[in-house]
Amino acid sequence: MTDTTDDIAAEISFQSFDDDCKLLGNLLNDVLQREVGGKVMELVERNRILAQTAFTMRNAGIEDMAELVEKQQASEISKMTLEEALTVARALSHYLNLMGIAETHHRLRESRHITHLSRSCDDVFNQLIHGGVSQEELYKTVCKQEIEIVLTAHPTQINRRTLQYKHIRIAHLLEYNDRGDLGHEDREMLIDDLVREITSIWQTDELRRHKPTPVDEARAGLNIVEQSLWKAVPHYLRRVSNALKKHTGKPLPLTCTPIKFGSWMGGDRDGNPNVTAKVTRDVSLLSRWMTIDLYIREIDSLRFELSMNRCSDWLSKLAHEILEKETSPEDRKPSASRSNFKLKHQHASSLPTQLPARADLPACTDCSDGPSSQYPKLELPGTDYMPLKSQDGKDGSGSKPPKSATANSSGSGGPSMTRSPSFASSQLLAQRKLFAESKIGRSSFQKLLEPSLPQLPGISPYRIVLGDVKEKLLKTKRRLELLLEDIPCEYDPLDYYETTDQLMEPLLLCYESLQSCACGVLADGRLADLIRRVAAFGMVLMKLDLRQESARHTETLDAITAYLDMGSYSEWDEEKKLEFLTRELKGKRPLVPPTIEVSPDVREVLDTFRVAAELGSCSLGAYVISMAANASDVLAVELLQKDARLAVSGELGRTCPGGTLRVAPLFETVKDLRSAGSVIRKLLSIDWYREHLINNHNGHQEVMVGYSDSGKDAGRFTAAWELYKAQEDVVAACTEYGIKVTLFHGRGGSIGRGGGPTYLAIQSQPPGSVMGTLRSTEQGEMVQAKFGLPQTAIRQLEIYTTAVLLATLKPPLPPREEKWRNLMEDISKISCQSYRSTVYENPEFITYFQEATPQAELGFLNIGSRPTRRKATGGIGHLRAIPWIFAWTQTRFVLPAWLGVGAGLKGVCEKGHTEDLQAMYKEWPFFQSTVDLIEMVLAKADVSIAKRYDDVLVSESRRGIGAELRGELLATGKYVKVVSGHEKLSENNRSLKRLIDSRLPYLNPMNMLQIEILKKLRRDDDNIKLRDALLITINGIASGMRNTG
User: Fold this and answer.
1) Which of 47, 184, 389, 1001 could bond to 52 as cystine, CB 3.0-4.6 Å?
2) What is the pLDDT of residue 752?
């Protein structure tokens, strides 16, 4: 319950939000006035005023007048020319985007001004200590915490990356505008910068004209790391360390990182034929390349900073060995130092030759910098790849990476040019002559800048050691470029970095040296941040998961057994499959003959396992089996892994790098969720598999649960309950066999796909399901929303840490009594029946869905590399969850998130259990979380807008379906309020309600435009301009709703 003081504080804080919206809105008006003229601006303003008027009337209960105003608005929109409609749609879309930027900035500003930030490390550690948790237990639990956030390329991010970058620059300018020391001239310059950014945005095409490749998607994920997470992670770890030191007396160990990152971008091949084995290999190498490039930049800054001479004996010895290698490169004596490097130092001198970017600024500015990024934008491999076989890598950190063939993986390569030896040799002579001429005079000038080493009065040991680190990093980077270009490379393994430990060793040596010389304050600056980055990101930034459907593995083993005249694997029963798989796993010989001839689909599966063997667990994360239903699905992957590793190690003449990938079955349909516990029990009862987990995966089993398909299968409420029970059962199964379990949550951004506030989601898990470990996906638009800015990323990482910590040390309460579980079963049963009777059993529903929503037109968006359907059939069953939810979100009906819920709650209330449900809401976190999320969705839904789609687009014979569903939406809201005790929807979150209401004057006209454009496009589906106008409305509505799919 909020009191008056909170309301006043909220009003004060919203004033600055309103000021930002007004500033950006006025500047956009000025830009539009100049760009499109006054007539169009009048149309935009007229539509905004009409929408605001209708909303105000409806809020006041004057429904009839509100409907008249909306009809008037719809009539005026229908009379617009196509050019006018397109321009108005663009203008409204940009208004919504700018409001979104102001909203994000508002949240960040609020968090900065709060003295005791709730859910922060300081806040939660304090709660736990005062709640009886000992300092030692708190410290150990934080240090052992293992959270992995997995970024996926699910196609829900509407905005082009170009526009995302421009939006980030506007966010930085808003932050700068908050400074109290800005003079009049500074303020005017800031306004000019904002006008330039908004003008640039207006003149930029909002639409993707080509479908992204899987490599494009992977590059987008890597850009999130570069622009935000790279800066955020050290700051987040400092917060954890400082809070730990405050409450336990001990800081976080330097190499300890509670959170790491994974990725599905370039590894998720489930239903996506564009993700091939080559794509996976190249994306993994590209990720390594970018990691090394980022480390080189950090080393440059460190070399500038660590200019002191005083150091430990170990570091001094290492520095002198490096100098000796420089002066006598033929001397190949092994190093006696603890680093055990093979030291060669040809290019990286002991003194930096130029000031690194931002080296003059303190490290603390990394997360609060101005409009410009800390680093120049990385130029990553693109689609215009040309081999660089004769080009040497540059020594500096700004060298361009290879334009990898990955971008062309789904198409043909470019033409090759054959040149004669005489031409090559004459070209080489010409290049050498040109190089020699370019160096004339430079050597002498360089000597003036940098004294020769013997003349130095004293060496700079840290610069020398870090220079050697940079040299190895440069060679590592060049080696990766050669591998990406498929050029053989013969680097000595001691000349480049292969593992995290190799890079970490000299950095820790420098750190210990500074600490031993009473320079701890220097050690705990940039150097500590770099060590923490190495601990968090390793050598790959984000380990790449592989995901494939279980049926593809069955098909592959079927082809193998048929080739070997062993019968048809797919026709065997489960026991025979397990017997065969276990026998082969215990054997030492390969199963697949090298000469086997198989179909292209089977060959692709085998090639994927071969790439997995070549890269190993150093580069790759988990192998996720979608649509897993049996223990044999897991053993099939283990066998194919084993066979590929035997084949690759035989060819290499050595063992494969890293270990086997851990295998995570993904249970996603309601049927599979119900059998998840029994599948895991069957799996763990197999001696070979249990020993395999203990010997190779530290006694850990990973199990993934899917929120999207279960929701589409049975409705959101039933899916939530089945997921809850499945997690309980899986945890119990693993406990029975003494195996630890990590649950991997496949959450989407929208409520219908398991989305919602991170803290709320983790705190509502079954007791015992979060025991210090968690994996969770962050998908589509939520990646940018949560991690696109360093400040928001820091906050999200902190929330993940504290939520998991609380769920571990103070688990959420289970249902108080068995009766509550029985009531949940009743609600779930009625809800599922109601949902399925509408979606799957009504033969008219699929046609109604296609008429009432822009589902068919979503494919023109070009926002993802994978098809919208798993199989080429017209039913809901094979439609992916994202377009299913995306389409309903566009019409503001948001049907998948609430359909069936009202029927379930009503059924139980009418049996006299209303008070029981109210008690469940107050005392059971899981039930409260489920109801609150549905309430949030209902607050975003709009019955009048949804009705307008039906009135204009749906055949008269099917409009009754829409009328019935709208009635059910209103009934759901009624019963949700009965259970929660709220008089109005979102009563417990007034700030959210106000933010939603502030968007409506721009969002409602966008929906009306979309309806009119859809009507015209369906009569003239080849009209490219109409299609563009529709896609712009889709973009705008997605921006206004904040969640898409």
Assistant:
1) 1001
2) 55
Helix (H) or strand (E) holding 83: helix 82-113
- DSSP characters over 931-986: HHHHHHHHHH--HHHHHHHHHHHS-GGGHHHHHHHHHHHHHHHHHHHHHHT-SSTT
pLDDT on residue 140:
97
Segment 668-683 mean pLDDT: 95
Looking at 250-254, 290-294, 612-616, 862-866, which range is the least confident one? 862-866
Distances from the Cα of 285 to the Cαs of 149, 479, 481, 580, in angstroms? 20, 10, 9, 35
**Averaged pLDDT score across all residues of the chain:** 84
- Of 154, 167, 260, 642, the catalytic one is 154
**Mind listing the pLDDT tens digit for each residue in 860-870?**
766 656 555 55
pLDDT band for position 874 (cuts 50, 70, 90):
low
In angstroms, rounded to a whole number, what is the distance separating the alpha carbons of residues 30 and 335? 68
Residue 74 φ/ψ, nearest 5 degrees: -60, -40
8 Å CB contact between 978 and 938: no
Catalytic-residue membership of 712: yes
pLDDT exceeds cutoff 90 at 8: no
Unique residue bearing structure tokens 């996906």: 777
How far is the CA of 37 from the CAs of 4, 32, 40, 79, in angstroms?
46, 7, 6, 19
- pLDDT beyond 50 at 672: yes
For the record, the structure tokens of 243 come out as 């809070």
Catalytic residue among 260, 345, 712, 786: 712
| Per-residue H/E/C for 597-635 | CCCHHHHHHHHHHHHHHHHCCCCEEEEEEECCCCHHHHH
CA distance 835 to 712: 9
Q: What is the pLDDT of residue 235?
A: 96
Number of neighbouring beta carbons within 10 Å of residue 268? 25
Residue count (the chain): 1045
CB atoms closer than 10 angstroms to residue 180: 4
Which residue bears the tokens 């035989």? Answer: 650
Count CB atoms within 10 A of the CB of residue 669. 18
Contact 616, 657 (CB under 8 A): yes
Q: How confident is the model at residue 6 (pLDDT cuts 50, 70, 90)?
A: very low
Instruction: Using the predicted structure, report yes or no on whether residue 1010 has a pLDDT greater than 80.
Output: yes
Residue 740 to residue 734: CA distance in whole angstroms? 6
Which residue has 């004339």 as its token pair? 440
If one compares 779 and 503, the residue with the highest pLDDT of the two is 503
pLDDT in tens, 845-856: 999 999 999 988
Structure tokens at 321: 């060995």
Conformational region of residue 629, where left means phi above 0, alpha means psi within -120 to 50, and beta covers everything else: alpha
C-alpha 194/C-alpha 694 separation (Å) is 58
Residue pair 592/559 in contact (Cβ under 8 Å)? The answer is no
Dihedral (CA of 323, 324, 329, 332) sign: negative
Q: Answer whether residue 871 shows pLDDT above 60.
A: no
Over residues 904-924, the mean pLDDT reads 96
Cα gap 922→925, rounded to integer Å: 8
CA-CA distance, 894 to 934, in Å (whole number)? 10
3-state helix, strand and coil shares in percent for the chain, rounded to the nearest 5: 65, 5, 30
| Burial call 559-596: b when 16+ CB within 10 Å, e when fewer | bbbeeeeeeebeebeeeebbebbbebbeeeeebbeeee
pTM (2 d.p.): 0.84
Q: What is the pLDDT of residue 471?
A: 94
Residue 486: what pLDDT?
Answer: 86
Q: Are 717 and 930 in contact (CB under 8 A)?
A: yes
Angle between helices 990-1017 and 38-59 (to 10 degrees): 120
